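Justification of computing resources. Each target in the renewal requires a structure prediction run like the one illustrated here; the chain below, 203 residues long, is used simply to show the kind of job we budget for.
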Amino acid sequence: MANELYLLGAVVLVSAAYVIRQLVVFHKFGGTMLVTCPETGKPAAVKVATWRSVWAAIRGRRQMELSECSRWPERQDCPQDCLCQIEANPKEHQLWTIAAKWFEGKTCVYCSHIIGPVKHLDRPPALLNPDKETLEWENIPPEKLPEAFDASVPVCWNCHIAEKFIREHRDRVTFRPWEKSGPLGEYAPDKPEDDKTAHRHAA
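Resulting structure tokens:
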């Protein structure tokens, strides 16, 4: 009886280790990825059929295929030669990795604050495009991101929201010139001329 329990425990441990390994594989190849399409030489956004890949691995088969591609359905019958790029280095092709590297160390074009690390649950930074419009990078079609990064400058979340409100509700915004700034960046208008003169005389 004891031997059977030991055997059962070993089987459970091995099975658990195998499932964990496959979940790691799922995480590694999950999400949207950017590849260079072998046919056009241009960026393409793809997703790996991760559950099918995991199930194939469980059955002892090495099989990877795409579930989505920005060039589908027109080229859905392609040989999927781009998969070799993902297999070689999946992390480097993940969309979040590419965006995080682009924003790393950059400052907001409006407030000059450093843009923090790009994380899944954080408020995403944005881009200021040549048309002077701010867009969250997540809302740009993934296959267009490399082009957008080349043509745009970074904007932090707070400035993006402010600019978006001004753009959409211009009639509800009052613009005041900032002649001076207070110690916390607040608006500090010039004093009347007589006050300045009195101050000089007092000095």
